[in-house]
Amino acid sequence: MRLRIFLEPQQGATYEDQLAVARATEDLGFDGLFRSDHLLHMGDHVSGLPGPSDAWITLAGLARETSRIRLGTLMTAATFRYPGPLAVSVAQVDRMSGGRVEFGFGAGWYEDEHAAYGIPFPKAGRERFDRYEEQLDIITGLWSTPVGESFRYEGKYYRLSEGPALPKPQQGPRPPVIIGGTGPKRTPRLAAVFADEYNVPFSSLEETAAAFGRTRDAVAASSRTGPMTYSAAQVLCVGRDEAEIARRAERIGREPAELRANGLAGSPDELVDKIGRFAEAGAERLYLQVLDMSDLDHLALVAEQVAPQVA
């Protein structure tokens, strides 16, 4: 099991906060650092100050400040950017990192943040997914077009004329693509066609196993030949004793009992047990959602007492 740290900077974080976590992630031996792509905080227990930070600008900075960990998004919103410029940004950050980027990509869902920042938001879920599928086609197509050849696309929502399809990412033919969600039909199909990794976010063990099963079926029914990696994202709250667990839960506006039921919470031994059950369901990677970025001792505890038992 590979453990990755997952941040939600829109809840309130500076670039320096994220850099401190990235350096700790690397120093402590975690596999990667991933962040959300949101522009508006969620919930009443945080202010969101000093305000959101752009996911790919942040990752570009972290790419130059780290040397080993994988870097990426869970998930970049297809509604935020046009596919051509997004392909350029991700390819450039991949080169800046020496080939360590992974591209988590979703259809977009949080309507309020679109309204807050003047971003068009298609009301119909079908249209969002249609646009998302076209973007997946375009971005992966731009990256995989051989140097010296041009790329052209004619879709319902996006049209690209003959273009140079540059720059290329350092990883060939492209950075790994991560698709996530628990949609019963279209998400598994898109994952089977486009993704290197399928991720189930913040779901129960039973829901996660069922979603993995649907995607395995879609992979088996597709013509793909490459393997699929299965992963999950879970909120993290671990402590050496009940007082420490309660303190960390309070800092993120949650209750220990609720976190134990709906995340990775409790003692290190409790985490090892639950991570083992996710592994039995087929998860090969876990994204640990760290909501209090000031608590680097939280990461150290996982690195010292959990990671060695699940490696």
UniProtKB/TrEMBL annotation:
Transmembrane segments: none annotated. One of its GO terms (biological process) is alkanesulfonate catabolic process. GO terms for molecular function: alkanesulfonate monooxygenase activity. The keyword Oxidoreductase applies. Keywords: Flavoprotein, FMN, Monooxygenase, Oxidoreductase. SUPFAM superfamilies: Bacterial luciferase-like (SSF51679). Gene3D superfamilies: Luciferase-like domain (3.20.20.30). Residues 8-251 form the Luciferase-like domain. This is LLM class F420-dependent oxidoreductase.
